[in-house]
Task: inverse folding
């Protein structure tokens, strides 16, 4: 029994990481109908950036966030302004193709620079620290920090989206880009800010991923899939739904892995497909006209 | 005549290969109310969209305050003080009534219009301020669209078919707000299919027909026959 509770708690905590993969993805799709195929690879890029920062400055990976997050946000702004804004229009295909190309470029660029060897960020003793919840149930401090960060990020995005002028601009531009321009909003700037925000979240996800497990240049696409699945399970357009989606996926994978180590990824996909079959709109769909 | 606030000079406009406006010239003086009338597809909305920066145009084809603004992006035109109440209202469904008004004022142009003054003009909006903008009646939605445009404190307000799809009594209510707007010195361009309504408020009238100005003159001086002939081209 204790065994199973442990498994589920581990799944929930990993779910926070998946929710972070998903939040940036869903933000971009919601605002500009852009499906960012390179999202997973950008997570891996953030991980490598953190690797370089920690190795050159000798920082703890968690402190490297102070550099990696703004750097990725700047990169996001530039990427949107110089590249992706040119692909947006009535047709969904050009941004899809361009981000697919970007994904290939990032993977091969990282392979060229860092080789295909697996890497890992060393966070020191915090990696093995844990707290006892009740008798017999121990929770790793790092997964706990990771989950708390995920909740804070989703909550922060929720506040930005529904309580600030920036969020108002995001929602207005998503509703009707032409009329938003009449209000004095430059769509290109609004989209670039959205991508900057998305990649800031990606940066946190990338660093946490890199502290948690080994990474190499090719693992991006799988993170993209986990992100997609979390978004769809949670329901498009709902931020808290995305967190729940990540948790559902994380628990499914943890339970699968506990039954048989080979079933981890498969179990996640099966739960996703099952939910898609019975509830295609997701658990918490946002009603929109 | 004093230098016009807005001077549209030989404006052409295209949707792809289709030409919608042919050498249209229109002047609007500061504080003036001008009506643009014409049948469906005459180019009225295209003219307003060109002025607001939603269509491509030669820079010199549109002068605002003697500066070329033709072809500037819409957000730059808005910053200079031209606001458009778009056809079909174009409210943001994800935003509440109050948020729609706030976003109209997000350029923070100084001027007489604030949220409080818009609520004074349309008291019913104050009651529905937290409602989703699309849950309002058609007339109330039109009030939000007008209030949103006023929040930009425009020097020139462009209204595209604000009576479209509204009951006559509601149209009367909406038009009743115009004097308060004009009292602030705002110039006004009204595009209407409802000629009677337009002639009542406008000092001058332009009638468009198939993308060209078919008739222009003081509202009081136009005969019904002249308008009919310019409207239908018979």
Result:
């Amino acid at each position: 029994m204790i065994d199973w509770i442990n498994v589920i708690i581990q799944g929930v905590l990993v779910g926070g990481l998946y929710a972070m993969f998903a939040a940036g993805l869903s933000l971009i799709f919601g605002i500009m109908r852009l499906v960012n195929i390179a999202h997973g690879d950008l997570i891996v890029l953030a991980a490598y950036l953190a690797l370089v920062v920690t190795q050159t400055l000798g920082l703890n990976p968690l402190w490297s966030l102070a550099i990696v997050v703004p750097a990725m946000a700047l990169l996001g702004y530039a990427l949107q302004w110089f590249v992706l804004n040119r692909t947006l229009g009535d047709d969904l295909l050009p941004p899809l193709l361009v981000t697919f190309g970007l994904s290939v470029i990032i993977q091969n660029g990282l392979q060229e620079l860092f080789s295909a060897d697996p890497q890992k960020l060393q966070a020191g003793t915090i990696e093995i620290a844990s707290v006892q919840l009740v008798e017999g149930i121990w929770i790793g401090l790092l997964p706990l920090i990771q989950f708390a960060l995920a909740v804070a990020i989703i909550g922060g995005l929720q506040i930005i989206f529904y309580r600030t002028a920036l969020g108002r601009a995001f929602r207005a531009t998503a509703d009707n880009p032409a009329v938003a321009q009449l209000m004095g909003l430059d769509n290109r700037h609004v989209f670039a800010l959205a991508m900057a925000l998305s990649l800031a979240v990606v940066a946190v996800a990338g660093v946490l991923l890199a502290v948690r497990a080994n990474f190499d240049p090719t693992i991006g696409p799988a993170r993209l899939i986990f992100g997609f699945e979390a978004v769809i399970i949670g329901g498009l357009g709902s931020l808290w739904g995305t967190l729940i989606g990540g948790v559902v996926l994380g628990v499914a994978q943890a339970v699968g892995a506990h039954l048989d180590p080979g079933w981890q990824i498969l179990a996640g996909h099966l739960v996703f497909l099952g939910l898609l079959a019975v509830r295609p709109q997701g658990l918490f769909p946002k009603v929109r006209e | 005549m004093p230098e016009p606030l807005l001077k549209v000079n030989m404006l052409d406009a295209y949707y792809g290969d289709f030409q919608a406006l042919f050498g249209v010239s229109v002047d609007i003086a500061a504080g003036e109310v001008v009506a643009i009338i014409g049948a469906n597809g005459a180019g009225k909305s295209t003219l307003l969209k060109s002025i607001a920066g939603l269509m491509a145009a030669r820079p010199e084809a549109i002068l605002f305050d003697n500066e070329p603004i033709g072809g500037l992006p819409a957000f730059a035109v808005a910053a200079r003080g031209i606001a458009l109440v778009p056809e079909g209202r174009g409210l943001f469904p994800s935003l509440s009534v109050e948020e729609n008004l706030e976003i109209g004022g997000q350029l923070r142009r100084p001027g007489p219009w604030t949220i409080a003054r818009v609520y004074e003009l349309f008291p019913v909006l104050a009651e529905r301020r937290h409602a989703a903008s699309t849950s309002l009646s058609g007339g109330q939605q039109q009030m939000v669209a007008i209030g949103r445009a006023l929040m930009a404190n425009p020097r020139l307000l462009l209204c595209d078919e604000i009576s479209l799809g509204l009951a006559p009594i509601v149209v009367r209510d909406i038009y009743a707000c115009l004097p308060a707007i004009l009292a602030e010195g705002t110039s006004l361009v009204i595009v209407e299919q409802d000629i009677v309504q337009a002639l009542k408020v406008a000092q001058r009238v332009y009638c468009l027909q198939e993308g060209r100005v078919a008739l222009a003159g003081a509202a009081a001086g136009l005969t019904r026959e002249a308008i009919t002939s310019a409207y239908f081209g018979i």
Observations:
- Chain A has a mean pLDDT of 93.
- Chain A is about 75% helix and 5% strand.
- Chain A touches chain B through 19 residues (CB under 8 Å).
- The CA atoms of residues 254 and 260 of chain A lie 10 Å apart.
